[in-house]
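Filed under: proteins

Residues; backbone shape codes:
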Amino acid sequence: MSETEARLHADQEISVDGKCPEPVLKSARALRGMQSGDILKVICLDPVSVHDLKAFSDQTGNALLAQETEEAAGAVHYIHWLRKR
């Protein structure tokens, strides 16, 4: 468990295997079904998701709490935590 994961409790977690725009679209869909203040953890394989989810956060007002990368099973995972506004 990462330090960020120990600090933040995700109310929902999604895994996105596709490339742009799928991380943003799936995150938006998940956030629509969540309550204000809930935290969404998004795990992506696409390195562009770092930029895309930051821009999504700026445009929608959903707070981007943290971003980090992890290597697992020979793949790099980009992990994002968003708080619904």
About this structure: Helices lie at 3-7, 22-32, 49-60. The mean pLDDT is 95.
